[in-house]
Design a protein that fits this description.
The chain is of the alpha/beta class and 339 residues long. It is built from eleven helices and twelve strands. GO terms for molecular function: FMN binding; oxidoreductase activity.
């Protein structure tokens, strides 16, 4: 299956919102971005993509001609590539009824594991979303990262019981989901977390814990104070706050402030292997990509996921070779130019 065939197939079953565009840049969606839409105009989603394109890579082929390694080590695991599939829940509601959360996660988590990477899985108001996610991770030998919404502590503890039973190598919380309209006025309550509350949640997890949704140096240092093992520089794909900076605009200052004391991942608007290279050059350890993986599952199931992984993996490998980096450790800041 080619990537073009994958997209054509996805367009027949993606539901009313996603257009399965050749490049997922937010322009065709606006405030109707699936998952389930954006607050305001959706301008941040468009900015996310555009700002990665404004960073250019510096070609340098006067370097030693050796095989290129894209391997990443994270939390005791070795991954074939430094990118991961992002979390999504309630796929039948937001992307079309071809899949349920059970069938979607079964395909995504196992296909990613077989390809040598891992998938972050989603959470939702329906408890079955987390159940399906953790069951899929367990079936894949723990090769996945369950992502819990910022519920109250009692609900989080219930979610963690499922997380622990699936053998996941790490856990995450998308704290930026506090801005999702469907979490407003929830019973039990969900929303923002203080440093003290986050510290208690991290302690309860008992796993390397990833805080997703950090967009400032101050926020990164708060996550560090709470005991996070990693953060994800993320604005929730541009869906929770208009007029927010793009992740490409804040990544470098955050990586410099953290200075290696936590692992740093980044998401939102990255769509190619070249984009992944740019993020690593700006200090990220890895990248998360979400909506294109949904398109891959809808367009081709496990084969579609494999096609997409191989596509962007090959793009990353080629960019590394053409810029003079034979390993992820050799990717340096001077290999990119910010316009």
């Amino acid at each position: 299956m080619t990537y073009e065939e994958l997209l054509a197939s996805a367009r027949t079953c993606m539901g009313a919102y996603c257009k399965a565009c050749p490049v997922c840049n937010g322009k065709a969606c606006g405030s109707q971005i699936p998952g389930p839409g954006a607050k305001g105009s959706g301008d941040t989603a468009i900015r996310n993509y555009q700002k990665w394109q404004e960073i250019r890579v510096n070609m340098d082929t006067l370097s030693e001609n050796q095989p290129v390694s894209t391997a990443l080590e994270l939390f005791g695991q070795t991954f074939r590539y430094p990118f991961f599939a992002g979390p999504v829940g309630a796929v039948n509601l937001h992307y079309g009824d071809k899949y349920t959360d059970v069938s979607y996660n079964e395909i995504l988590v196992s296909a990613c594991a077989q390809a040598g990477i891992a998938a972050f899985t989603g959470d939702g108001v329906n408890p079955e979303v987390m159940t399906a996610a953790t069951q899929a991770i367990k079936a894949a030998g723990g090769m996945g990262v369950p992502t819990v919404k910022p519920w109250n502590l009692e609900t989080i503890r219930e979610k963690f019981s499922q997380v622990h039973s699936c053998g996941a190598f790490a856990a995450a919380m998308d704290v930026d989901a506090a801005g999702l309209p469907f979490l407003k006025n929830m019973t039990p309550p969900a929303g923002r977390k203080s440093v003290e509350e986050l510290a208690e949640i991290i302690k309860e997890s008992g796993l390397p814990f990833i805080v997703k949704g950090v967009m400032t140096v101050k926020g990164a240092l708060k996550a560090k104070e709470a005991g996070a093992s990693a953060i994800v520089v993320s604005n929730h794909g541009g869906r929770v706050l208009d007029q927010c900076p793009a992740t490409a605009e804040v990544l470098e200052e955050i990586t410099e402030a953290v200075d290696g004391s936590m692992k740093i991942l980044v998401d939102s608007g990255l769509r190619s292997g070249a984009d992944i290279f740019k993020a690593l050059a700006l200090g990220a350890d890895g990248v998360i990509i979400c909506r294109p993986f949904v398109t891959a599952v809808y367009g081709g199931g496990a084969e579609g996921v494999h096609t997409y992984i191989e596509k962007i993996g090959a793009e990353l490998q080629d960019t590394m070779a053409m810029c003079g980096a034979n390993s992820l450790e050799e990717i340096t800041r001077d290999m990119v130019r910010c316009l």
